[in-house]
């Protein structure tokens, strides 16, 4: 094992900053190889017992000089080390510290701090990137007012942007250079700092706020891509309006700018007034973006915009509170998308994501609480748990205290903590106050990791016309948490009878109000009396809590619910539950060398749903999507054989394709849109259902259906259909697949975002040849380890989107990932660590794969010189 490990940072060790920063004035002289940054900080001892020695963070910086109150400091006046700078002897009053640093943006491959993407200067400072620009107390509870002057070569960088409002700009005579000054009046932590410079195209618009102020909106992109910004701009304006109506939040600067760059470690970043985006989440045209891309753009534009209040105006005291801004902002963007599109379909999609990523994370070695209590590398905590489970916790809070108290609590939070760096305690106190409730037990959702398991056992007693429901909860052990306490679990419910939802005459037992059960104890018993017939309970409506629910309902009950439940989410869930059982049984049969058993009732129910013209096509498309392979693996829970799960999925898809062929063909024929492409939810829903039908049809391998898919590909007038056609051909291993891949490549060879899709389709193709193909594609001239999107499109997609081939029993998939990730680790540790999280479920695999995965993890762990990011992920995976 490699030796040193980064130190553990603990929530309990939090101490307020010794020094505060009131203002930051920066003068940045941009140069590709040596950018100089002069920073002037007005600092003062923290009145809450601060002062004393000054410690500033700094990483990979050249210190040019340092002045304290105008006096140049000599080498003996301060101490430099690899993580920063200390000045032992400080005045005990306010002071001015001036720092000159230099960095090389072109050599910055980590994409943290100041770097270059396709010739554009840009920055990424969350979580700890500002320390790669200058020496600074790089922590979110130090809030300062920033003024930034940028200067650069006028030809290379005609556009100069920073946070806040523009103040002035002009030429620097005789130098070929120009400058711009930006001022952000809102105090902010340095992780929200941003600057951009380059030769960028601009798309402009305006937005008039509720109080009548006009805001200039700009989206900046690489030249030639301006015509792909229309949807993002529209989504931005809708987000701004929505935050006014849904949360009473108005925008607070004169300008709002978005810049799209092609090299970015994550999705996007909410820098104050200057959001920087991975261009994948900005650029869209019918020819290049799928419906899913459009939906992602809408959600991420909204997410970053909503951070202006939840994250920027109120920020986090420390990085342990990350969910304070992320969970809340995901909740807000989910609600926005639900209002823009279909609420039930949105909920289904969100829950699918939650289960596919967060439930998997929570069940493995990387499980951690929504608010972690310790970390070695904060970059590794931008996780599904912090984001998605964090959003679920907010959603539960709303369900528990009701809409009115929730909104009042949000208003109070904004009023009370505006301009502050807050904690989860601060946040919850607002809701305790507006609801009058004690949220002590609720708070366990922030500290206990693992997915709670709820068992519901119902018993009908005809002699007393009563239905008894026993609910039990438990939570499996997770790293560092062997024993859990019972949580408060909101369970929305209904009782379905032959005529719809039934109302019991009397309810006995604790915790039931209207359609909500509050499960608080380890075991709770509820009796519904005065029912005319045996009900089928519909539990956890709308997925009211992020738990694993097991019931004693049989398939007949579930299929009854699939047809009758008044809650659309649970109609979908009921079908999924039956499909999960079928797939789990099928993979067991396949592993035992037998044949899986069909279920005519399931097929009939699926047919009915698919044919129900009164149901939204987008909803029907979701019904036709089987549980993911990860869902099945989770259901099995141990000794998992991904190849058997894959075979079971193939079998069931083929069975559905054959048994429902007439229905699916009718859908395919009937749903064609004879109008130009529009990305709206209704049109996207039709395409989703039509493509789902085609995909199932072709799963039989029937020549006519494959030919139909080929025509679908060839005749498509938009990327959604073209890509769906290509995917079907590749997945079916059709003869036409290679020619289609080549045609696709030729058409889009100069379009990186589309070429990413081409890489992904091949990386996720079934069959043993895929590994070799991935290796071959790494030699493709367009493949580059330096571009995170490309790496994720090929290597990330293979490791996370192709479970059967990544988890090859010979371990070759693991070795490939290990080799590529350790190579990337030398240039971009964040990206490497994220790729390696694909190992997170290795412990539940059957012994051969488990041993191979462990061997690769141990090999990586033994390497010298691993980054903190990668060694943290690998070590935790092995613990
Ligand atoms: N706050 C951003 C996520 C983000 C985090 C770290 C980054 O560093 C590379 C970038 C973005 C969000 O929630 O959108
Ligand atoms: Zn966010």
TrEMBL record:
Sequence ranges assigned to domain Aminopeptidase N-like N-terminal in this UniProt record: 108-192
Keywords from the UniProt entry: Aminopeptidase, Hydrolase, Metal-binding, Metalloprotease, Protease, Zinc
Reactions the enzyme catalyzes: Release of an N-terminal amino acid, Xaa-|-Yaa- from a peptide, amide or arylamide. Xaa is preferably Ala, but may be most amino acids including Pro (slow action). When a terminal hydrophobic residue is followed by a prolyl residue, the two may be released as an intact Xaa-Pro dipeptide
Enzyme class: hydrolase
Residues of the Peptidase M1 membrane alanine aminopeptidase domain: 231-442
Segments forming domain Peptidase M1 alanyl aminopeptidase Ig-like fold: 450-551
Entry keyword DNA repair: no
Lineage top rank: taxon: Bacteria
GO molecular-function terms, A-Z: alanyl aminopeptidase activity; metallopeptidase activity; zinc ion binding
InterPro entries xref list: Aminopeptidase_N-like_N, Aminopeptidase_N-like_N_sf, PepN_Ig-like_sf, Peptidase_M1, Peptidase_M1_dom, Peptidase_M1_pepN, Peptidase_M1_pepN_C, Peptidase_M1_pepN_C_sf
GO biological process, one term: proteolysis
CDD domains, A to Z: M1_APN (cd09600)
Database matches in Pfam families: DUF3458, DUF3458_C, Peptidase_M1, Peptidase_M1_N
E.C. code: 3.4.11.2
Domain Peptidase M1 alanyl aminopeptidase C-terminal: 555-879
Cofactor(s) recorded in Swiss-Prot or TrEMBL: Zn(2+)
PANTHER family: PUROMYCIN-SENSITIVE AMINOPEPTIDASE
Sequence similarity: Belongs to the peptidase M1 family.
The protein's name in its UniProt record: Aminopeptidase N
Source organism (scientific name): Tepidamorphus gemmatus
Lineage: Bacteria, Pseudomonadati, Pseudomonadota, Alphaproteobacteria, Hyphomicrobiales
């Amino acid at each position: 094992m490699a030796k040193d490990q980064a130190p553990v940072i603990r929530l309990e060790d939090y101490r307020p900053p010794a020094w505060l920063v009131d203002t930051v004035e920066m003068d940045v002289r941009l140069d590709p190889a040596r950018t100089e940054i002069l920073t002037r900080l007005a600092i003062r001892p923290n009145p809450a017992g601060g002062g004393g020695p000054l410690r500033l963070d700094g990483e990979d910086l050249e210190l040019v000089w340092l002045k304290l109150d105008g006096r140049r400091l000599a080498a003996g006046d301060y101490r430099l080390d690899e993580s920063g700078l200390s000045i032992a002897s400080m005045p005990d009053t306010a002071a001015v510290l001036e720092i000159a640093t230099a960095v090389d943006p072109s050599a910055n491959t980590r994409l943290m701090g100041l770097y270059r993407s396709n010739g554009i200067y840009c920055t990424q400072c969350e979580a700890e990137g500002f320390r790669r620009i200058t020496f600074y107390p790089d922590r979110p509870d130090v809030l300062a007012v920033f003024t930034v002057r940028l200067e650069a070569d006028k030809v290379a960088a005609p556009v100069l942007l920073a946070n806040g409002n523009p103040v002035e700009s002009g030429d620097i005579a005789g130098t070929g250079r120009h400058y711009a000054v930006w001022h952000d009046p809102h105090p902010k932590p340095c992780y929200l700092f941003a600057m951009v410079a380059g030769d960028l195209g601009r798309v402009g618009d305006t937005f008039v706020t509720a109080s009548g102020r006009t805001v200039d909106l700009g989206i900046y992109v690489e030249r030639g891509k301006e015509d792909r910004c229309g949807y993002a701009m529209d989504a931005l304006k809708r987000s701004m309006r929505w935050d006014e109506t849904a949360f009473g939040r108005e925008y607070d600067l004169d300008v709002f700018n978005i810049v799209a760059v092609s090299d970015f470690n994550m999705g996007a970043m909410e820098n104050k007034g200057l959001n920087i985006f991975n261009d994948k989440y900005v650029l869209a045209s019918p020819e290049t973006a799928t419906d899913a891309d459009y939906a992602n753009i809408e959600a991420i534009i909204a997410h970053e915009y909503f951070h202006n209040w939840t994250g920027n105006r109120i920020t986090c005291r420390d990085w342990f509170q990350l969910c304070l801004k992320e969970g809340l902002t995901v909740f807000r963007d989910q609600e926005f998308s639900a209002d823009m599109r279909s609420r039930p379909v949105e909920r289904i999609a969100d829950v699918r994501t939650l289960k596919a990523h967060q439930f998997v994370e929570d069940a493995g070695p990387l499980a951690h609480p929504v608010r972690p209590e310790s970390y070695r590398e904060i970059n590794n905590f931008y996780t599904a748990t912090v984001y998605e489970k964090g959003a679920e916790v907010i959603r539960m809070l709303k369900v528990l205290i009701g809409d009115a108290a929730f909104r009042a609590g949000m208003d109070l939070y904004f009023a009370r903590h505006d301009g502050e760096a807050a904690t989860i305690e601060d946040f919850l106190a607002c809701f305790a106050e507006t609801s009058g409730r004690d949220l002590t037990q609720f708070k366990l959702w922030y500290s206990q990791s693992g997915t709670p398991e709820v068992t519901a056992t119902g018993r009908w007693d005809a002699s007393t016309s009563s239905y008894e429901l026993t609910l039990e909860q438990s939570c499996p052990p997770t790293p560092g948490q062997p024993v859990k306490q019972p949580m408060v679990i909101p369970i929305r419910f209904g009782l379905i009878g032959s005529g719809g939802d039934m109302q019991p005459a009397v309810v006995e037992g604790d915790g039931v109000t209207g359609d909500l059960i509050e499960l608080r104890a380890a075991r709770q018993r509820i009796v519904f009396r005065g029912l005319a017939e045996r009900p089928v309970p519909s539990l956890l409506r709308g997925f009211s809590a992020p738990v694993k629910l097991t019931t004693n309902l049989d398939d007949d009950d579930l299929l009854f619910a699939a047809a009758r439940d008044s809650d659309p989410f649970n109609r979908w869930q009921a079908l999924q539950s039956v499909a999960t059982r079928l797939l789990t049984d099928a993979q067991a049969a396949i592993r035992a060398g037998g044949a899986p058993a069909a279920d005519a009732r399931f097929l009939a129910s699926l047919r009915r749903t698919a044919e129900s013209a009164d149901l939204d096509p987008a909803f029907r498309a979701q019904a036709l999507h089987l549980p993911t392979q990860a869902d099945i693996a989770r259901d099995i829970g141990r000794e998992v054989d991904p190849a058997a799960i894959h075979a079971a999925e193939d079998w069931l898809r083929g069975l559905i394709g054959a048994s429902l062929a007439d229905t699916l063909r009718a859908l395919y024929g009937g749903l064609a849109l004879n109008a130009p492409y529009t990305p709206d939810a209704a049109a996207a829903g039709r395409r989703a259902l039509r493509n789902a039908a085609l995909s199932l049809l072709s799963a039989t391998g029937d020549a006519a259906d494959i030919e139909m898919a080929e025509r679908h590909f060839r005749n498509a007038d938009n990327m959604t259909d073209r890509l769906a056609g290509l995917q079907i051909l590749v997945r079916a291993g059709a003869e036409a697949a290679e020619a289609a891949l080549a045609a696709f490549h030729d058409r889009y060879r100069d379009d990186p975002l589309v070429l990413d899709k081409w890489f992904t389709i091949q990386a996720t193709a079934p069959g043993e040849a895929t590994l070799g193909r991935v290796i071959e594609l790494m030699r493709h001239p367009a493949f580059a380890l330096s571009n995170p999107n490309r790496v994720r499109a090929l290597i990330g997609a293979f490791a996370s989107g192709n479970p059967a081939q990544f988890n090859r029993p010979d371990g070759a998939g693991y070795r490939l990932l290990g080799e590529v990730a350790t190579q990337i680790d030398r240039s971009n540790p964040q990206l490497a660590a994220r790729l390696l999280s694909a190992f997170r479920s290795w412990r539940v695999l059957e012994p051969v794969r488990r041993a191979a995965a462990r061997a690769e993890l141990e090999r990586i762990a033994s390497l010298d010189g691993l980054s903190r990011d990668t060694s943290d992920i690998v070590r935790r995976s092995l613990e």
